[in-house]
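TEACHING EXERCISE
Course module: macromolecular assemblies
Task: Read the component lines below, then compare them to the predicted structure of the full complex.
Student: A.B.
Group: 4
Components provided:
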Amino acid sequence: MDRTARHSETRYGNRPTMKDVAARAGVGLKTVSRVVNSEPGVTPDTERRVQEAIEALGFRRNDSARVLRKGRTASIGLVLEDLADPFYGPLSRAVEEVARAHGALLINGSSAEDPEREQELVLALCARRVDGLIVIPAGDDHRYLEPEIKAGIATVFVDRPAGHVDVDMVLSDSFGGSREGVAHLIAHGHRRIGFIGDQPRIHTATERLRGYHAAMADAGITVADGWVSLGSTEPERVRMAVEEMLSGPEPVTAMFAGNNRVTVTVVRVLAERERPVALVGFDDIELADLLGITVISQDAAAVGRTAAEHLFRRLDGADHATARVELPTTLIPRGSGELPPA
Amino acid sequence: MDRTARHSETRYGNRPTMKDVAARAGVGLKTVSRVVNSEPGVTPDTERRVQEAIEALGFRRNDSARVLRKGRTASIGLVLEDLADPFYGPLSRAVEEVARAHGALLINGSSAEDPEREQELVLALCARRVDGLIVIPAGDDHRYLEPEIKAGIATVFVDRPAGHVDVDMVLSDSFGGSREGVAHLIAHGHRRIGFIGDQPRIHTATERLRGYHAAMADAGITVADGWVSLGSTEPERVRMAVEEMLSGPEPVTAMFAGNNRVTVTVVRVLAERERPVALVGFDDIELADLLGITVISQDAAAVGRTAAEHLFRRLDGADHATARVELPTTLIPRGSGELPPA
DNA sequence: CATTCTGTTGACAACGTTGTCCAGGGCCTA
DNA sequence: TAGGCCCTGGACAACGTTGTCAACAGAATG
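Instructor-supplied answer key:
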């Protein structure tokens, strides 16, 4: 087995190259390139011959080589927490649409809320020289991105702020939304209100908790021990937290759920109970309308679209100071948040 | 502006290359390559010097060049219908996990159920020389893939079969699941049962309809005009179809919904009605348990995992005949499918 | 001391494409 | 017919990496 043959095995299964096409069409290499890229300066007759050769050989341009030469990959990376989370589906889709409009492909990965995995993913994307990055951070220190950003990889952080690097951010108004939701419960007569949120490591979790405290303080209510529970969003954990808040001599009469996964579990637990408990959840959920769940809704698609548009504006050369956009949330009353205290 | 400077603008923002690292560390190019790839045969001292230079310059290997040289991209493409669809989130995530276990990245795109866009996406992925492809097809003719497959891009079709090409497929048992669901309704006393499904162009839609017809025939029921409606899954369209089936002198007493999006709309419409109508839906939905919706469930994550595992087995050299896996579905009774005829 | 062996290192070509630049032919004009 | 221009086409280098191979130093062996 000679060297050429050995090579071809590990390569792209012996795909024809422009050189092959050129040989078959009886033209020069560059002429093929011109045809493939629809560049001017090729007579119709030559072009036809080249096209025929392309067809016959099943040639397809090797974008890896192209990228190496041109320096742009026409792809962007999206690092999020979990593609399976219903919040990220629409976000991801919105990013994809914008990318498509700019002729770019989307490479994505899930960090599973693990800072190390986030970094690993981000750096892998940088090694591929994606033109830009959209990151929903899991960790809170992103200094590892500095050389990459300096080297020109446009970056936008989404949903949570970046730690120790100066980049564009697109966030939801977690504090304001949460404050509004809790105030809504207070307005309906509640004073003993529980808060169940995500892990305190996560920025949105603490922001939402801050909103809760602000609303309670606004109403002059002292938050009792045991009304606040932060931790994993595992159903087990949330279930225990809910049950604890509902037991004891002075159970809460209303709850605020810190994100969609928490809300789902809380709804399930409350459904098993007799005494009605008011509930407002952060993030909308499919079918929440039918279940009558009052929520603070953030428009995931709008978040994704905004982030992607910022990114491409950077890629198109905008070099103004880094921006921090905060998108408003909406309270959607559907019943669960308007229940009076039991 | 001289040529070098002009170039550097369009390139990766003047990122340092191995050559730069080599110069700074006072070693040869290949030695840097060895260090970067943890190849043996470098003394600790040399390695340290190289590492320092890498740190100092913020070097990161350019995977585009690497890919060009090695012929493997360590990435796979996933083409699905809509990332925002809750069915595809877990599927996509499962694919990603398998890819990650094999050290590959995932590039994905949505076809939006448009065959042309599907082809465009698939070919773009092939041009990037992804190692493998997982496709949820929108169209029904995939001969355009032939040269690609011949050239060695491993391909697995998911959820719907491929048209006119011989590739691995991982499907759900649409026919069987649908038949079981409709039989379930019949067992609960229904005879006038409506079917609302996706566009007939889509294979699963017709398979599910076939299951419906089979169950009806098994029970000796003649399907009346107006009990079957195939078309877009737009809420408007579905709503009209439901309302039509529920009006008239002999309205249906039960409905079978052909997929999750249809189910959601049907549930909404039925919720507005007084007379209860039984319902079984294909695909599970979050919170369906709380709403008491009986469904035929297919495990999206299992589908994705299976497909990805098949793909990587191919990439690892398996060259047995193409396989066609059909995963079973499960009926989950939750109330809506057990309602008696009104 | 000559020889072989082992292990480290670097020079060089190649991967497939695109940018630059030049050659040659046809056409127009003087 | 000579001179100039435009148009088409091709030769060649370069992108940043990795595989191959040879050179070299030092250790081990005769």
